Amino acid sequence: MHEKPMLQGIIPPMVTPLQERDQLDYEGLERLIEHILSGGVHGLFILGTTGEAPSLSYRLRREIIELTCSQVNGRVPVMVGITDTSFIESVNLARHAAEAGAKGVVLAPPYYFPAGQEELLEYLDHLTPELPLPLTLYNMPSHTKLMFEPETLHRAMDNPAIAGLKDSSGDMVYFHRLQIFLEKRPDFHLLVGPEELLGETVLLGGHGGVSGGANIFPRLYVTLYEAASGGDRDRVEELHRTVMHISNTIYSTGRFNSSIIKGLKCALSLEGICDDFMAEPFHRFRDAERQRIKRHLTEIKNNHPLP
Q1: Rounded CA separation 244/238 (Å)
Q2: Any idea where the domains of the chain sit in the sequence?
Q3: What is the value of pTM for the model shown?
Q4: Would you call 166 a catalytic residue per the annotation?
Q5: Candidate list 138, 221, 225, 251, residue with the active-site label
Q6: Which end of the chain is more exposed for a tag (fewer CB within 10 A), N or C?
Q7: From CA 76, how far away is CA 43, in angstroms rounded?
């Protein structure tokens, strides 16, 4: 058993650049990957929530796996989301990811039919022998309406194929309860989803973050992670203010829960990195919101010393 966790640092959940409903923005994807990697990130997570994965066809998901793994070419580990309501489709995506060169897969609980915790454990026991790559669990109760309870996770850690957890619950009490379990599995990684919690999570022993803002400002989140890992609380506080400015502006434009992804894609479009087309049932920001995002980007760059 490894003493260090498989993943540490900043693993951005990459947006999926689209031009139409079932067509990638190929040039935008290439620019986006290079932009993110240029920030010194420690990995890349595709086909997650920020990547709009549940709205994408299986054909397009396979295509983005192939193109991303090919372009990254081993420079950082690529993690692939395989969350699905179909057991077989999750396995199919995992096998495709392994063939393309990914280093791990990420799975939230199947949504729609609500499973009990015992059923979740049995599901994982059946699934992991079919997976060719290490599995990171993904706690996303706001979207799946189901969470991996602490005791469920504690029992799941007996399965060596389960390598870690990304927690997007925003519940720090839950996260700290999970940290106690690391005595049992020092190789198990605990990553936080909400970047507003990144600094304190790493200061208190978490292994890193799956930070959506690293699509736009990858170096910011890497520098924040490094400061927190080194215990530099003054620097963490300074960089955290920038992260909160992003959260309170780029993520808070618009009226719906989809505003975070819309804001990210709009900002990337304004920066000339990729198209901001959204998968149905959503649409890109229209001109009024786009102008607000443009102003917010200028404010962030003018008011904060970005690394």
Answers
A1: 10
A2: 9-230
A3: 0.95
A4: yes
A5: 138
A6: N
A7: 5
